[in-house]
Design a protein that fits this description.
The chain is of the alpha/beta class and about 325 residues long. It has 2 domains: about 180 residues, NAD(P)-binding Rossmann-like Domain (Rossmann fold), CATH 3.40.50.720; about 120 residues, Orthogonal Bundle (N-(1-d-carboxylethyl)-l-norvaline Dehydrogenase, domain 2). Helix content is about 45%, strand content about 10%. The chain has 12 helices and 10 strands.
């Protein structure tokens, strides 16, 4: 007897995961360069944002910064709606409790002073909703110390952004010893909804991931200049025209896979013992800062003098390159 053929019936498609959505209401504590940029990043994704600063003069400066930044994004073709619609979603003021009662996410961005951060957390902890996530943009202070007096430690984490926040894709989502998996998942989903690239930091080492990588390269750069191998301008050209451009596409580990790990091993054996391991601050950095040469903001820095127009040109160049990279990476 021949066994009848079995005709497969229609299959039920696997359910697709819903697209992540941005938090509805966000409070950003601090209205400096980072705070205003972070507020703008959320407003671009549709969130209503309350930004706070202690001083009216800081609020006025932040208003001007936001107006200029939204205008720049429009000029770069990065807005999907009228600039006024984005700007309308950001409200700034000196009332630290404004918007706090129904916030989904609170982000602390004030200066890197532990006493100030702890005092601010004490001030607002009683007003934060019981299901809100509370984060800090710190890159150098221990999260456990900042949030020591927050009652629900499972809802706190680090959320480390990079300047300018509205254009840089990377955001480090930093786990503290007491952060719950649910909190990490919410933050990661929110960052994805903003179009960011969230990177999980499971162990909050000083500097997290990106700054440690950046400063390892910068330490070697200072040494090459001190040894007379090249000038600071040559260093910048080597990065922007070489490794920086390549890593923007595929990253350092994938670059090594593409080159061949046998080649990588041979070069590592030669170079690793010879790379700079100095832990002291470069002499030129101490010398420049001691005489008030602080870079663009003071008009003089590592690469000479900066007029207001030259600084503005650098900011525009950075924005246009970052915007171009963002458009490239969004292509299917």
């Amino acid at each position: 007897m021949t066994e009848a053929a079995i005709t497969p019936g229609p299959t039920t498609p696997e359910p697709t995961a819903p697209e992540p959505t941005a938090p509805g209401r966000v409070v950003v504590l601090g209205a400096g360069t980072m705070g205003t940029g972070i507020a703008l990043a959320f407003a671009l994704a549709g969130s209503t944002v309350h930004g706070w600063s202690r001083r009216t003069v800081s609020i006025e400066r932040a208003e001007r910064h936001l107006d200029a930044a939204v205008g720049d994004l429009a000029d770069l073709g990065l807005l999907r709606e009228p600039p006024k619609a984005v700007r309308h979603r950001i409200r700034l003021g000196t009332d630290v409790r404004a918007g706090m009662g129904d916030a989904d996410l609170v982000i602390e961005t004030i200066r890197e002073d532990l006493d100030d951060k702890q005092a601010l957390m004490r001030q607002v902890s009683g007003d934060i909703p019981p299901d809100a996530v509370i984060t800090s943009n710190t890159s150098s202070l221990a999260l456990g110390d900042i949030f020591a007096e927050i009652p629900a430690l499972d809802r706190v984490a680090g959320l480390h952004w990079f300047n300018p926040p509205e254009l840089i894709g990377l955001v480090e989502v930093v786990r503290a010893p007491f952060t719950s998996d649910a909190t990490m998942a919410r933050l990661t989903a929110w960052m994805s909804a903003l179009g960011k690239t969230p990177v999980i930091v499971n162990n909050a080492v000083p500097g997290f991931i990106a700054n440690r990588l950046q400063y390892a390269l910068i330490r070697e750069a200072y040494q090459l200049v001190a040894d007379g191998v090249c000038t600071p301008a040559d260093i910048d050209r080597a990065v922007t025209s070489g490794i920086g451009a390549r890593w923007a596409a595929i990253g350092p580990f994938q670059s090594m896979d593409l080159a061949g790990l046998d080649v990588h091993l041979a070069v590592a054996r030669t170079l690793f013992p010879d790379l700079c391991g100095d832990t002291s601050i470069p002499e030129v950095l101490n010398e420049l800062t001691s005489r008030g040469a602080l870079g663009c903001k003071s008009g003089s820095g590592l690469l000479g003098t900066y007029s207001e127009s030259r600084t503005a040109d650098l900011v525009r160049l950075r924005a246009s390159v970052l915007a171009g990279l963002a458009r490239i990476k969004k292509r299917p």
